[in-house]
Amino acid sequence: MAEENKEFTTEDADDYGLIQEPKEFIIESKKAAELLCRHLGDVCLGNNIGKRILTRLVSFCRKVANSNASLFDMSYDGFMGTGKGVRSIKSGCIMARFAQQEGYSSSRIDSLIISALLHDIGLLKDDSSGDGHEQEEHVMTGYKMLGSCADNRIDEDVRDAALQHHERYDGTGYPFGISGQLINNASVIVGLIDEFISVNSTSTDAKDVRRILDERKAGFEEKIYKDFREQAFWLMDELEVIEDGV
Fold first, then answer.
1. Which of 29, 58, 115, 192 could be disulfide-bonded to 161 (CB atoms 3.0-4.6 Å)?
2. How far apart are the C-alpha atoms of 196 and 198, rounded to whole Å?
3. Would you say 221 and 118 are in contact if contact means Cβ atoms under 8 Å apart?
4. What is the pTM of this model?
5. For the chain, which domains are there?
6. Element (H, E) at 99
7. Neighbour-count burial of 182, counting CB atoms closer than 10 A to its CB (0-12 exposed, 13-18 middle, 19+ buried)
């Protein structure tokens, strides 16, 4: 019989060997974030430096995705740290794992990772807090920045993810309030990852995070949400089955 009100946290995940030594990833993710922020202009111009930077960042995201960390671990501040640009690196790492599990082609995975890495580029450029009007402005800023990129890896998915990652499938998002299939598929995934990281930043209780996300699931395409939920909370689901004696 399960203990009443038992909470599942990242400490439980650590007991099951899911979290690698966090110091390594905190250091590496902060370096990656610094690299991203320092070379935003080069990335957007699509010059040789920018192309090398994007390649290094995509490789780092794939490295974390191929570790034994869970999606929940990757979003956890104690695993990858905090600071300007770190959230974008977290998004890229989570995207790498999710896209791999979904069975996308290697080129598609790279495009989705870049979409996740650069979706908040407008916010990073402005160095703003992301509150109120600034929060809505950053999507337009990012879209315009990426629209002038010469790098052919900055494709429609990447640009749309910057513009649409706050749009929601039920039409409740911004900046345009579009809904359903009018939202780019990459934007839906990036938006879900962004929501996941936001919720996890306020709670380390996985059950609480799962409950809050479930309350917001109408904002996301059904299959994408279902697949992401299964990846993010598979260990918790298995433990609940064991505790219930099923």
1. 115
2. 5
3. no
4. 0.85
5. 10-243 (1.10.3210.10)
6. helix 86-102
7. exposed
